[in-house]
Amino acid sequence: MKYGYFDDARREYVITTPKTPLPWINYLGNEDFFSLISNTCGGYSFYKDAKLLRLTRYRYNNVPADTNGRYYFIKHGDTVWNPAWQPVKTRLDQYECRHGLGYSVFRSSKDGIAAKLTAFVPLGRACEVNQLVLSNQTDAIQELTLTSYVEFCFWNAVDDASNFQRNLSIGEAEVCGSDIYHKTEYRERRSHYAYYTVNQDIDGFDTSRDAFLGVYGSVERPKAVWEGTASNSIASGGAVIGSHHLKITLAPGESKSFIFLLGYAQNPQDDKWEALGVIKKDRAKAVKAEFATDGQVEEALNQLKQYWDRLLSAYSVESADDKLNRMVNIWNQYQCMVTFNMSRSASYYESGTGRGMGFRDSCQDLLGFVHLIPERARQRILDIAATQLEDGSAYHQYQPLTKKGNSDIGGGFNDDPLWLIAAVAAYLKETGDFTILEEPVDFNNDHTKAEPLIEHLKRSFDYTLTHLGPHKLPLIGRADWK
Amino acid sequence: MKYGYFDDARREYVITTPKTPLPWINYLGNEDFFSLISNTCGGYSFYKDAKLLRLTRYRYNNVPADTNGRYYFIKHGDTVWNPAWQPVKTRLDQYECRHGLGYSVFRSSKDGIAAKLTAFVPLGRACEVNQLVLSNQTDAIQELTLTSYVEFCFWNAVDDASNFQRNLSIGEAEVCGSDIYHKTEYRERRSHYAYYTVNQDIDGFDTSRDAFLGVYGSVERPKAVWEGTASNSIASGGAVIGSHHLKITLAPGESKSFIFLLGYAQNPQDDKWEALGVIKKDRAKAVKAEFATDGQVEEALNQLKQYWDRLLSAYSVESADDKLNRMVNIWNQYQCMVTFNMSRSASYYESGTGRGMGFRDSCQDLLGFVHLIPERARQRILDIAATQLEDGSAYHQYQPLTKKGNSDIGGGFNDDPLWLIAAVAAYLKETGDFTILEEPVDFNNDHTKAEPLIEHLKRSFDYTLTHLGPHKLPLIGRADWK
């Protein structure tokens, strides 16, 4: 069974059926905003930290597999379908998913309507762009309804999936024109919000999951989609979703484009209200203005492609073996960058809710990307070293948002500190930048205990030397591979 | 909108539509084995502890609402339906759910086939009985297929819902005749297993969720059910389910009964294998033999009803107000017993995965059931007191399986110790059994620190007296209501 192929010229992997044995996912985002997206548009988004600032709710190990996601429902006569098959799973006349470097493109068609959905996280912006182009390939005028859907997570992904007696009562949303704002806990303890918007006037919206799906309803068959009408619901408790409802007429041969944004914005704590109970929206509006036209989206996507051109140009091989070239020049390096971004903490199997980033892992991973992003590797080294304890030992993990050691897991994995030396050595070999050794770095994130990085390395080494067993070999401690 | 009514004579609440605004649930079980069951057969089962020994997987705050459960699919021609509507949600010709005291009965019909499903946890046994009677109310022979379904949880409900990189690879099942055994981790670290069985020969089975539902399949439309054939799958990794497949012929007017059991059994650690890799099954088989006939099931249900007659006979009121009589004589006392059993730790909203049992809560709850079960109230008092610390303070919560204080939450809720005095006072007033005061009770579950219960009460009181603020009022500490 063949499910797809590599397109080396475009540096894409092309999936030709939605029914892969497991979801095949891509990772969007390069700095602070990240999304996972599968070949059927499943996945979730977060800002900086998959545990603490989760934007959308995902259900791991779910039935049906790989729900939720960002979903676009197209109702055309009595048929409802999605450009990426899920969740309705209507048989498509055509389907293709291209996972590229930091973006995914879905092309599909059904009954003479073609859809092209492009998803990416633009450089320097905390949002995911979903550009959907619908085309009428028939000789007749076609009437459609287009309905969007995301389900918001209440920020802390662990609490969101366990503290139901609380989180079923606190959901809040706000709608302003085509812009849907998720603001649960904004009033009480947060100054950040999520937004989901489209660059068009809409014919309706929903923010209450129950109103949209119907009680006992499923995302495979949302009530609002099948009934062809939104209920303009404002969630107050329950589950908060974002859904836009658009009625569309396409002349023969006509195409229309819709630019959806799912974004994160943070206000200053003392300047977060526009009016009583109305959140200040200028940051979201500014981003929306940057992605209001197809030209702007195309430009942002081009910048993203140039960014990857630049990254991958640092190191390449040309051999007689296409497969070797492909892996060395594209996918291994891409994987290393994904590992830099996610540090193995967020995937479909590592839920992003438990472990944060590994001390050992992140030091090891650095060897794979130091040549791509030496400046960011430098910062990563300093972040990791700042969680080290004064005696040279280390927290096994740290949380990406706070950059502090994770005391739930604690330390005592005695190989951890040595990997810091390996990481710094790799950085020095790549850059020759010996100034990093003089950089003052906290111990245990305490500024008063800062010492030059070289002192951290010495303590790492000393800790190993002074923790030996009866055979004079270093004690492993509680390392997971012992 | 009316969804049901009280049947006071039978002491049941009768729900007349499956589409209640939220799931309306009943609590089955009286000692060690507990199940939650909704009016559409959703819910989950556990042994002693909803966090540490969860038998079946439930998805809180799910879409569709209230899935999973113990499900029975009836395929009759091209129509598939469930006796309690979910998960297929086929419109039924008749539907009724009766939530009684420790049991629930569902009666429904579709196209001339009637179903009666009786669910309860028998006294003294660690299993849930599901007796399903199918009747042909037509004048013709009818051919049906009956398919059962539960999805097993991998015991620790928190790990099961977070540690996917591990738990997607460890699932194990065993099938022997009509008996399906869930034995994940039995080999490595457990000596207990779950079983799901039926008192009939079967025509097939499934234990792999993917095989049963189909990849990307849903429990609303399992592949095996619609195709009318099981694949006799043995799960090896992935999700482990239990599903029996039975082909049934019913003559006009004929009824057939099927007794399904979902149970828990524990073997001695040093005597857990029947043969290499084959678990020892004698305990499950012994329970199965006790519920092999309709007569046995009827007898067990009668015993359960007598148990409740006895409990409720201790305290009753007769007044001119039916509603007062109903609440005092039946439902308030039933609720108190459910609170004794679950101690607010497992419901659809309190997930049973976080808090264990509350020190304060359990002391307060005792006031509601001490007259019903004075001997068990006595034990509950001793269990709670044994988690108290030597200085008189208390863990705020303790885990029902281990009966040890929960150090994640810790103590410092300064009202906690005083509630122990209130609980003991209630027990003394009800029973006059002052011997409890002399009973030796551990501090912090340490036998070497045992002191008579009266000493615990003194320390509770002293702790309050010695922790006063500037106005000589007791310091609240970190109590949740301050």
Any descriptors?
11 helices, 482 residues, ten-stranded antiparallel β-sheet, globular, six-stranded antiparallel β-sheet, homodimer, alpha+beta
Describe, in plain words, how this protein is organized in 3D.
The structure is a homodimer of 482-residue chains. Chain A has 482 residues and is of the alpha+beta class. Chain A is 25% helix and 29% strand. Chain A contains eleven helices and 25 strands. Chain A has helices at residues 157-160, 164-167, 209-213, 223-227, 282-290, 294-312, 322-342, 359-369, 374-385, 416-431, 453-465, and strands at residues 4-7, 12-15, 25-28, 33-38, 45-47, 54-56, 71-76, 79-81, 94-99, 103-110, 113-120, 127-136, 142-155, 173-176, 179-182, 192-198, 204-208, 240-250, 255-266, 273-275, 278-279, 357-358, 397-398, 440-443, 446-452. In chain A, the strands form six sheets. In chain A, strands 1-2-9-10-11-12-19-16-15-14 form a ten-stranded antiparallel sheet. In chain A, strands 6, 7, 8, 13, 17 and 18 form a six-stranded antiparallel sheet that branches. A three-stranded antiparallel sheet of chain A has the order 3-4-5, with no helix packed on it. In chain A, strand 24 (440-443) and strand 25 (446-452) form a beta hairpin. In chain A, helix 8 (359-369) runs antiparallel to helix 9 (374-385). The model of chain A has no long low-confidence stretch (mean pLDDT 95). Chain A binds chain B through residues 19, 21-22, 40, 59-68, 86, 89, 151, 161-165, 167-168, 209, 213, 215-220, 239, 348-351, 353-354, and chain B through 19, 21-22, 40, 59-68, 86, 89, 151, 161-165, 167-168, 209, 213, 215-220, 239, 348-351, 353-354.
